UniProtKB/TrEMBL annotation:
PANTHER family: GLUTAMYL-TRNA REDUCTASE 1, CHLOROPLASTIC (PTHR43120:SF1). The lineage of its organism: Eukaryota, Viridiplantae, Streptophyta, Embryophyta, Tracheophyta. Gene3D superfamilies: Glutamyl-tRNA reductase, N-terminal domain, NAD(P)-binding Rossmann-like Domain. This is Chloroplast glutamyl-tRNA reductase. One of its GO terms (molecular function) is glutamyl-tRNA reductase activity. SUPFAM superfamilies: Glutamyl tRNA-reductase catalytic, N-terminal domain (SSF69742), NAD(P)-binding Rossmann-fold domains (SSF51735). InterPro entries: GluRdtase_N_sf, NAD(P)-bd_dom_sf, Shikm_DH/Glu-tRNA_Rdtase. Pfam families: Shikimate_DH. Residues 60-130 form the Quinate/shikimate 5-dehydrogenase/glutamyl-tRNA reductase domain. It comes from Dimocarpus longan. One of its GO terms (biological process) is tetrapyrrole biosynthetic process.
Amino acid sequence: PSGELLAQVKQVVKVGQGVVGFGRNISGLFKHAITVGKRVRTETNIAAGAVSVSSAAVELALMKIPESSYATAHMLVIGAGKMGKLVIKHLVAKGCTKMVVVNRSEERVAAIREELKGIEIIYKPLSEMLPRLLLLK
């Protein structure tokens, strides 16, 4: 299925090249999506079977740090909705024990903290963090 999606994105780029308004920026975004899709397929086990987006994201992120750091590194998770909660659970399954969760409100973070006792989960309000972030294009 993820291979099919990648093929569909490639088709959009091909068709879009002749469409007014599909300029260089949009074309560049789609090409970047294709590159990321290929990378995810080659660097994770997503093509090996039923793998969720959240588990693939965790697998890709953890490739950036040594396994010996999993238990001591603070892992930043943005959002405490369904996807954020799944990311946290996958991180815990890999041995991560310290999370910093940026969310609009503390309610969902507190619920996750209650469910995952023994895991350090620090809440940071989105409103406090936004002014401190540098967003890259």
